[in-house]
Amino acid sequence: MTPPQRRTLKFGIVTDIHYAPEESAAADTTACDLDGCISLWKEAGTDFVVQLGDLISREGPEAETDLLTVSRMLSRYPGPMMHVAGNHCLAVAPERFFRIMGLPAPSYSFAAGGIRFIALHAMDVSVFSEPVNDADRQMLMHYRDELQAPFYCGAVGTRQLEWLVTELDASAGNSEPVIVLSHLPLLEETTDAKHGLLWNHEAVTEILFRYANVRACFSGHYHPGGYALRHGIHFIVVPGFVARNEPPFFHCGTAEISEGRLRIRANDSSVLHDLEFSLQPAPAPPRRCSAGSSASMDAAAPEA
Predict the structure, then answer these.
(1) Model confidence over 87-110: pLDDT tens digits?
(2) Which residue ranges of the chain lie beneath pLDDT 50?
(3) 95-103 — which CB contacts under 8 Å span 24+ positions?
(4) What are the distances in angstroms from CA 247 to CA 12, 239, 263?
(5) How far apart are the two ends of the chain, measured CA to CA in Å?
(6) Containing structural domain, residue 197
(7) Which of 36, 84, 116, 170 has a Cα at 20 to 30 A from 49?
(8) Residue 246 covered by a domain
(9) Which residues neighbour 83 within 8 Å (Cβ) at sequence distance 6 or greater?
(10) Distance from C-alpha of 69 to C-alpha of 62, rounded to nearest angstrom
(11) How far is it, in rounded angstroms, from Cα 199 to Cα 196?
């Protein structure tokens, strides 16, 4: 059967805004610069925007005030905005954060332009989240106490790992290319020791590497940005908005998928990445569990 024709898909990207009016020297320009991003996304005709986490910096009672302020700034974008939680975001109680941001669940998936986007909750198991089962509790103790991993990072929990496999099985069966979204980087070569990465990054990437239809992973967290190609998957760490006055001077950008290419442009129209991105269906692996389906731009989330 001939696969359906897929149109050009264009979406906005921004990460690590770190809104903190009393901490950042650039805070007085944040609203203006975010308005510039919104204008860019509108003029580019983006279908939606991906916001990759760390909207805020401050802790305590100011955290929710800052979150509400920056979310109002971003709400001026007229289209859908797909959020993932960063470690700083959870200075607001997780349930409250997800409610304010209108997330269907901490992790979810959606389809756009014939591509399946899978948004992971990288702080699922962390010092900021209550483990949901004994396996996650043991995982937290292992990384926090035994390995003394950076406390500001986290892991994908056991239920979410099972859900990820279900989503990937379904996407392979539907011949959907996949883009994964995660606040925390998934490869050591795309970050540094100071910033860290997903605690159980090896478990997650081992799953991703099983599927030939996984094309890319977008992350934030490491403010300078990074890139690596592993097993045919583009691991892209988007430079942080908070570091926009430092090289590579990236505020925000657009990602366009068309004619077998993934092109990421910065706010100044410079090309950050020009990568091969096949839209052709890949062979489906043997199914290990059942999966449901999601309508275009409708979210599918793991069960509680």
Answers:
(1) 999 999 999 999 999 998 999 999
(2) 1-3, 286-296, 298, 303-304
(3) 96/64, 97/67, 100/64, 100/67, 100/68, 100/71, 101/71
(4) 20, 9, 19
(5) 37
(6) 9-276
(7) 170
(8) yes
(9) 51, 53, 101, 102, 103
(10) 11
(11) 8
Q: Which of 280, 152, 283 is nearest to 210 (CA)?
A: 283
Q: Rounded to whole angstroms, how far apart are CA atoms 116 and 146?
A: 36
Other CB atoms closer than 10 Å to residue 68's CB: what's the count? Answer: 12
Please count the structural domains in the chain: 1
Give the amino acid at 150. P
Predicted local distance difference test score (pLDDT) of residue 50: 99
Please say whether the beta carbons of 15 and 238 come within 8 A.
yes
160, 199 in Cβ contact below 8 A? Answer: no
Q: Is 40 helix (H, G, I), strand (E, B) or coil?
A: helix
Q: Return d(Cα 100, Cα 92) in angstroms, integer.
A: 10
Contact 107, 121 (CB under 8 A): yes
pTM: 0.90
pLDDT at 239: 98
Model pLDDT, residue 240: 98
Taking Cα atoms as reference points, which of 24, 38, 39 lies closest to residue 74? 38
Q: Is residue 61 part of a domain?
A: yes
CA neighbor of 123 nearest in space, from 161, 95, 154, 158 = 154
| Residues composing the chain | 304
